[in-house]
Fold each of these.
Amino acid sequence: MLLNLGDFREDYNRDELLESQAEKDPFQQFARWFKTAVQAEIPEPNAMVLATSTTSGRPSARVVLLKEVESESFVFYTNYESRKGQEMAENPHAALVFNWLELHRQIRVEGLIEKVPATMSTEYFQSRPKGSQIGAWASPQSQVIPRREILEEQVRELNAEYSDAEKLPRPEHWGGYRLRPHTVEFWQGRTSRLHDRLLYTLAGPGAWVISRLAP
């Protein structure tokens, strides 16, 4: 055995999640919990695991940053030619996980992916720090490169080319996605591992059914 982790235990006793207290809409419930995470000064509370898969069911996951919550979707941005971009193009089914350990809370989101309009991607891209804009141009994300110096040289060349510009044009291979959920689960840790789990299931446009799941 390389590592024995059986003694790592955490007693969850911070809060509860009851149907009588929950919002009727999962986006409102998310906003409430996110505000609490910000107030608790959790580092990067908008960090989320994005899980995608190929059409054959081979999964992959990584942490990305949520950038906007709309009335019916969660929005994030990335390189369209990355592994996740290619998988989302093949298979639009995806999942998100927010894990706020300090609050003993987790949110799971499952739904369908679509690209945001190009104008929306451009507006967000040009609002980023200039260094991040240059990085998006310089990096062939998820591709094998022989050494880091190639990226650094690309960055130097782009800095020279756009030395007088505050904003760069958006690369065609970079932009936003929105995930439109059909289920959202809120998990609150409780004592003795009898956790609270409320599942919101989309029953129609703007209509959600709330169910309690056994822990």
Amino acid sequence: MHHAPEPQGLRQNEPLAGKTTFSVGGSAAYWLEASDEQSVQEAIAWAKARAKGLTVLGGGSNVLVSDRGVDGLVLRMGIRGIRHQISGSRVHVYVGAGESWDAFVQKAVTENWAGVECLSGIPGDVGAAPIQNIGAYGQEVCEVIESVHAIDRQNGTPARIAAKDCEFGYRDSIFKGAANGRYIVVGVSFSLKPRGAPAIRYAELQRYMKELGKDDAPTLTDVRAAVLELRRRKSMLLDPRDENVRSAGSFFINPVIDDASWAIVRSRIESAGVLSPGETIPQFSAGPGRLKLAAAWLIERAGFSKGYGDGPVGLSTKHTLAIVNRGGANAMDILSFARRIRDGVCDRFGVQLVPEPVMLGFTRDEIGDLVAKPALE
């Protein structure tokens, strides 16, 4: 059998817990850091020749690793660099997949390039941004992506996927759907607006800018600072001093349902007696005939308040959407706590919450019930 050469820097039995923000999980059977496209291609060839699985790890801020660890090769994406070119009324920026997302946002804001300022403070690396179609405070990354640069795992060749072919949806893309597992993202091309005005579409951000007296002509820097502060208040920034730091941020995706289902859910919420007089259920349009509900609100109204939990796992003390390892938890503890929250919301309101983090090293039996995609039960 043909053996591809062993990539330089390959390590065995590399502990993964310290490489994820949850701080749980076992080891990678094989581990490699890739600093350029060639090392990604070598890793693909090596894994293929030995019939080993290949898993890509970015910043580790949106993953849960199983207690057994991950079989095969775990590839840490380390391709760095930010290059830009101004052309007409846009600036085209190419960013390596291993670059910190927030470092890129900070550079864009410093250079006065508009388009990603509301995405300040999101942990993780640039390579994950198109996969998840990250979004926050009224902005989504798909609005500014031109193309995604990747290595095709089927043949080891470079590929460029134009934004229109990425099938972007709410926290979704072709990389999670039809092309799941096919590409390793090595870089992303963005189109930003030089000297553009910041986007302040999100109600909470609008209120806060007003409070600060900066709602008149806010700069990109003002908006970045405001978003970072709002995230800090919810423990949605990686701060080692924060008791809520060992988490993967929002654990559940905001559920999207159709109008017919909304009628059923609304009547269940109204009859559950959880609304105060005059209160409306938070909901947002998610395209024609579809609504997005607030997972954090559903969790809270199902009886799980901030800080809920006993033992090593609980909800964040500042935000009901984050599940926190309080110390000494393992991956199974986190999954069983997640099920408790999911089941509580489902029993109360008939809405099925789906986790956002990527699950690595689990069997279908262990997580099948959690990662299926129904919004309703």
Amino acid sequence: MESSVPLLEIKNLHAGIDGNQILNGINIEIGAGEIHAIMGRNGSGKTTTANIVMGHPDFDVEEGEIKLKGDNLLDLETWERAKRGVFLSFQYPQAVPGLQVGNFLKKSVASIKGEEAAKGKNFRELLKKSMKELNMPSSFLSRYVNDGFSGGEKKRFEILQMMLLQPQLAILDETDSGLDIDGIRTVATGINSSIRGTNSGALIITHYSRILDYIKPDKIHVLIDGKIVATGDSTLATDLEENGYDWLEERVKEGGIN
């Protein structure tokens, strides 16, 4: 029987940094197998939401709840959330010269899922399958982490990590930035295969509708000034692509959205 407890529940979340209020009462529920997207202008609170769910220590939660399968995440450190199955991709992943991709992936899987998960045939088969799905050559494993990677290679590498870690919740921050149309399609395929029909879920943060054309999120949430002012299906992203955010901002000013 399907559980009535959401995979992720964000309830009345108020938060900020250095005394500056950024989020003003965020509410989001993501069920198992669902993919949601957050859209909004720069500075609207999208990346702040991602960082707070992951437990970034610089941000202060003033009010509200964040629960994963009913368990309170706010009491957990960042590494504890990762162990519970929360994964966050980064907008600007750092290079690590001297650390080979293959070794990094093994260490990452071992640290989150245990040493046995990073050994043997199952790991090798999943790695091979995932790399094939993302159109990544086997020679990629001998390169150094993000060292000299193109923008597209960095994004595919992040999705590869997600596919190997198999998190309960994947938070993907601007995974489509810097990708051409083929790269967007490839990354979207990896996301869909990892989430759809599983007990996992994903929260995608993006400026554009391009990747959403291939993912078809269950819900899209629009953030303006730290508040969700609209929620809809993939047609909402099309409206934003065609008309921008001005019409929503006008509705907020006129009091048409609470």
Amino acid sequence: MYQRQLRARIERALLDRPAVFVAGPRQAGKSTLVRLIRDDGYVTLDRATTRAGAAADPDGFVAGLPMAAALDEVQRVPDLLLAVKAAIDERREAGRFLLTGSANVLMLPTIADALPGRMEIVELWPLSQSEIDDQPGDFIDALFGSEALTPPGTRSSRGEILDRVLRGGFPEVVQRPSDRRGDWFESYLTAVVEREVRDLSPVGHVAELVAMIRLIAARSGSSFNLADVARGARLSHSTARRYLGLLRAVFLAVEIPAWTTSLTTRIVRSPKMFLSDSGLTAHLLGIDRERLTTEPHLVGPLLEGFVAMELRKQIGWSRVRPSLAHFRTRRGEEVDLVLEARDGTVVGVEVKAAATVRSGDFTGLRALEAVAGDRFRRGVVLHTGDEHVAFGPTLAAVPVESLWR
């Protein structure tokens, strides 16, 4: 069984918060983790009878729970969160409720209003590579630290790195041979569309929704234009916008906003959009090792999405807890990913599919440093080679496996 880095954060939160909500995509490992923390008092709303009883009388259902309860898949009966709010207001004690859900409750307006001050929300994504390898996963904290980055202790071949990208992080997929992953991904996509999305809102065009998911996968790493995606999926702009909101709410689509500063208007403000797992992205696009060999241009966008999600996962347990964005100027200078700490300190991360790095690969990072000024801590180019080389006092080429080694 994999040790989840967020377990310690959840257990600490239960010591001083009335409720902790563990949110994340379907099959990311939420139920397994919650049962490790609190097996007594565990109730799952996946069971039809339990769900029906909770929906019929949310307040009575919550009143009948033990003082230290764990409610799994609570988004299946949204009114339960309002009942949890009422129970907390009546008797506010730390650790009363440990909740999970496959929907982002902050994107559900009637429920989000109930949360401030009562509930800590923790996002649990599929396994990070550091969790798979039982490593600390402290790359983000090292980026913001004052010490020079150290090379990873062991090195992986480019092929091994690409295998990780194609596999992704869903626990069941990690344990399957590569020829058995496709069936799992197909079943997963069906379950998300037919159950998770429809639990939130009616979907009248399932085929078009699936087409939209594939288009998001195909545009990984590019500036996201909803109008283009709507046309490609044969959806109206308003329907595409609603569907995108649903895909984000069930953690299937992840938006990376543009990094901006009030000091300049020369920054492009369009977001990027990724699917939340590189293995699922590769499956939807029909990408395997053979295609990555014969069509090397496919590696870059897939690797960028992989790195983006590895950073998103590590943010959850890092000491710094930075925001994640991207940077692009109107002149075309860009940095794939930008991390900004709460004190304004900035780190840039550029992702290169190549095994060698040249000075020109730092053009975007130098532009980011010029805009950020004294706030710029460092910039790194992550690559698939094995060399760790400084390109100046604040810039370095770093093997991508430094993310997890």
